[in-house]
């Protein structure tokens, strides 16, 4: 099929193309959802009830995850994306896993749990699963696969996939976020992207990266009391501030880690 042959060639520009299309469709779905099913939810406190979280935020992300999965299946890449990593990880890469887990645990301790109902907590956790599955599938799944099929080195794969992951979050500016806040978000998510790539390499599977990602967003939302914002329901300020330090550590340590990333997925008939 010409469809499959086109994508099987891989390459950086196809990775950029698939992310651009993903964002365009996601923004379109978000607009439609905001004017239909989620109409009026923005006027209420986001974490007051589970409805705004599930319908207003999680639903478009879930739909994008399903569409991305259909795309992966249409190319026959299911085993390639979810199977064993073709390039073995190194022991030092476990540092990335630890660096992702530490702030998650800190935010769990810092959260003011009495401020939320059980239903809201479950809704936020569901949102986290949607985000972890969808964003990892497109960034560490599809984009990484395309870059590897383009026969880039793993250092380039790690760098470009993290850049794309960071730029995916630049669309926050469409919603009216301040330019500085958008820039800091892109910088932070670029670093997180490298950490998640390393976690995928060292664990040998994309699934742990999905779970780490799925735990990062909801613990941040519950600890701060909002999405990309703080509210009266935020938890311990000292612990939240400590967890926030990692937002600046990830990009710096990620850039350092790139110098130690080696390997490349072999072309047929050649040694790695």
Can you describe this structure?
Helix 3 packs parallel to helix 6 and helix 8 packs across helix 10. 70% of the residues lie in helices and 0% in strands. The protein contains 10 helices and no strands. The chain has one domain. With 272 residues, it is an all-alpha fold.
Major β-sheet annotation: none
Mean pLDDT: 93
Order of helices and strands: HHHHHHHHHH
Give me the Rg, rounded.
19 Å
Give unreliable regions as ranges: none
Straight-line N-to-C gap? 28 Å
Q: Count all strands and give the number.
A: 0
Strand content: under 5%
What fraction, in percent, of the residue positions are helical?
Answer: 55-70%
Which descriptor suits the 3D outline? globular
Assembly level: single chain
> What is the tally of helical segments?
10
Task: List the topology elements.
Layout: H1 2-8, H2 12-34, H3 50-74, H4 78-82, H5 94-110, H6 118-149, H7 154-168, H8 179-203, H9 206-224, H10 237-258
Brief synopsis:
This protein is an all-alpha fold and 272 residues long.
Keywords:
mainly alpha; 272 residues
């Amino acid at each position: 099929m010409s469809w499959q042959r086109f994508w099987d060639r891989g390459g950086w520009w196809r990775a950029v193309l698939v992310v651009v299309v993903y964002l365009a469709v996601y923004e379109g779905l978000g607009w439609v959802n905001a004017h239909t099913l989620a109409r009026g939810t923005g006027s209420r406190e986001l974490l007051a009830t589970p409805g705004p979280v599930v319908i207003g935020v999680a639903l478009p992300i879930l739909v994008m995850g399903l569409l991305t999965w259909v795309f992966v299946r249409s190319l026959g890449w299911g085993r390639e994306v979810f199977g064993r990593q073709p390039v073995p990880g190194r022991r030092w890469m476990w540092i990335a896993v630890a660096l992702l887990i530490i702030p998650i645990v800190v935010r769990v301790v810092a959260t003011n749990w009495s401020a939320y109902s059980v239903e809201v907590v479950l809704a936020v956790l569901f949102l986290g699963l949607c985000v972890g599955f969808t964003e990892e599938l497109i960034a560490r799944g599809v984009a990484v696969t395309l870059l590897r099929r383009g026969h880039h080195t793993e250092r380039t794969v790690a760098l470009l996939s993290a850049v794309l992951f960071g730029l995916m979050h630049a669309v926050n500016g469409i919603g009216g976020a301040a330019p500085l806040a958008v820039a800091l978000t892109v910088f932070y998510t670029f670093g997180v992207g490298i950490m998640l790539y390393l976690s995928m390499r060292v664990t040998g599977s994309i699934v742990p990266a999905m779970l780490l990602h799925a735990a990062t967003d909801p613990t941040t939302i519950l600890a701060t009391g909002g999405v990309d914002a703080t509210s009266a329901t935020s938890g311990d300020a000292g612990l939240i501030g400590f967890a926030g330090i990692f937002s600046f550590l990830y990009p710096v340590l990620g850039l350092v880690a790139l110098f130690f990333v080696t390997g490349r997925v072999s072309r047929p008939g050649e040694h790695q």
